[in-house]
Amino acid sequence: MVAHETPPHVFSLSDSHLPSFRDLTMKRRQFLTSSAGGVGALALTQCSLHRASSSPRGADLPVADAIASSRDGLLDVELAAAPRQVALGDREVTLSTYGGRFPAPRLEVRPGDRVRWHFTNHLPQPTNLHFHGLHVTPTGSGDNPFRKIAPGKSFTYEFDLPTTHPGTLAWYHPHLHGTVAEQLFGGLAGLMVVRGAIDEIPEVKAAREEFLVLQDFSFDDRGQIAPPAAGRRVLGREGDRVYVNGEVNPQIAIASGELVRLRVVNASPSRFYRLQLEGHPFHLIGTDGGAIAAPVELDEILLVPGERIDVLVKGDRDSGQFRLTNLPYSRGGMGMMGSGMTGNRGMMGGRGMMGNASARESDEQVLATVTYSGAIAPQPLPERLLAVDALPEPSRTRRFTMNHGMVPGLGMTFLINGQPFDAGRVDTRVQLNDVEDWEIVNTGIMDHPFHLHAHPFQILSRNDRPEPYRAWKDTVLVRPGESVRVRVKFADYPGKTVYHCHILDHEDLGMMGAIEVMA
Fold first, then answer.
1. Contact of 118 with 2, CB cutoff 8 Å
2. Sign of the C-alpha dihedral computed for residues 162, 163, 169 and 173 taken in this order
3. Contact 174, 97 (CB under 8 A)
4. How far apart are CA 102 and CA 502, in angstroms?
């Protein structure tokens, strides 16, 4: 940890301050939000420090082991990245953690706040931080993917949120090219909540809020993260067990008549989650970039790596237990490492050397169990939420083609517009405040979620079919053979950042480009 005295207003977690998870008592967190007109006090709620034990019936749904909220317009935290032994499900394992905790602390801010994070790297390899979903500066001490923090070194991230920033669920994780999948798969992910207008809609405000961080891991006999098997990096690594907030099949309590607000992030490096709640529809109220205009009822939701959803679930049963499941889904991958190359950077196709290998279609998995307990007066769903204004007509249209191939000296790699990532190259230059349409095309044989840093966009169409509702996004799935058109305004922040596939092994293997917004 940084060798300086921590001011009394700074949220600080150092190894010397942390109790063992075995010593933490299991208590339900009660977090008091701030009163109207002000921000909540910076708080580590000690009563919330707990680990719920796993059992066949499931544990109570745990949330982040600490919450830090901004005070007087400032979120000031001191959190290090470091390996730590933690209780995960039914065993002791070693994970990489933020602040020595798993799940990582939840950070809460409001539009116009300043974020100051005193960060120290205690990992054995370099790292950095990405504030996924925040519209903030991507340069300097902001959401800078080119920042490199060596082992044992410290850096202070400091940036301001726009006063117009929407309320949304963002998250933080590492983003140093070449190590992103490994470090995320090692445990490094935490929630960052921007409180805004959606939280003040009466029906949404009355709903009980639960956060679900979906992660998968594989461990060896010593409780260490198991390296991916041969070929798994090419397909995108997936763990052999899925956890919700660090637990296996936790319980989510619901009363008859109650609305529960589930805020879900896919923090896995490669796994897709095809979510379905037995006997209950989802009422979608928000996506990556915040609220949509009106609730959309959905029987299931596909959540790709990096995506977030904000849904309401209505307790319209008298009693019972209902499974939140991850239904089977295949990400493709037949014929990976196959023949059919043309030239030094040839695109891949045809039959492959890996036979029937694919980004696996897993069996149905139970993620959590919704359990009825008690009854309250019925809470209504909101009829309207927040307007999502259409962006102006674009000044130009660009095309981005995602595929894979062999590159001399690099071997198997993943490409955007025929090139692997090069940190010394700028692939796309745009003008500040310009509006552009991007046509993102997948000519490969695997699904690719496309993610753009710092600048949210709206999805216009898929294969020329209009999207059913308008929403702010930062990640969009592009399936093989699909063309997705998005519209983005490059507002507020000049500077250099990146776009990439959010199957993070693909990003590490080259499927990323650099973009510079010119003032």
1. yes
2. positive
3. no
4. 22
Dig out the tokens for 407 from the structure.
């590159």
Count of alpha carbons within 13 angstroms of residue 475, beta-carbon side: 26
Tokens of 286: 């928000």
In the sheet with 495-501, reading across from the earlier edge strand, the strands are 428-431, 512-518, 495-501, 448-452, 475-478
What's the CA angle centered on 389, arms 386 and 393, to 5 degrees? 170
Q: Angle CA(130)–CA(282)–CA(440) in degrees, nearest 5?
A: 45
DSSP assignment of 440-502:
EEE-SSB-EEEEESS--EEEEEETTEEPSS---BSEEEE-TT-EEEEEEE--S--EEEEEEES
What is the C-alpha to C-alpha distance for residues 312 and 314, in angstroms, rounded to an integer? 6
Q: Amino acid identity of 501? A: C
Say what the pTM is. Answer: 0.86
Distance CA 223, CA 233 (A): 21
Q: What is the dihedral of CA 305, 215, 158, 113, to 10 degrees?
A: 90
Do residues 74 and 114 lie in contact, with contact meaning Cβ atoms separated by under 8 Å? Answer: yes
Buried b (16+ CB within 10 A) or exposed e, 357-372: bbbbebeebebbbbbb
Residues 6+ apart with CB under 8 A from 227: none
- What span, in angstroms and rounded, lies between the C-alpha atoms of 181 and 503? 8
The one-digit pLDDT tens for each residue of the chain (519 residues) are: 333 333 434 444 443 333 332 233 333 333 323 333 332 333 333 222 223 233 333 344 444 458 999 999 999 999 999 999 999 978 999 999 999 999 999 999 999 999 999 999 999 999 999 999 999 999 999 999 999 999 999 999 999 999 999 999 999 999 999 999 999 999 999 999 999 999 999 999 999 999 999 999 999 999 999 999 877 899 999 999 999 999 999 999 999 999 999 999 999 999 999 999 999 999 999 999 999 999 999 999 999 999 999 999 999 999 999 999 999 999 998 555 443 333 333 333 322 333 334 455 568 999 999 999 999 999 999 999 999 999 999 999 999 999 998 878 777 899 999 999 999 999 999 999 999 999 999 999 999 999 999 999 999 999 999 999 999 999 999 999 999 999 999 999 999 999 999 999 999 999 999 999 999
The length of the chain is: 519
Contact call for residues 293 and 469 (beta carbons, < 8 A): yes
Phi-psi region of 497 (alpha: psi -120 to 50; beta: other; left: phi over 0): beta
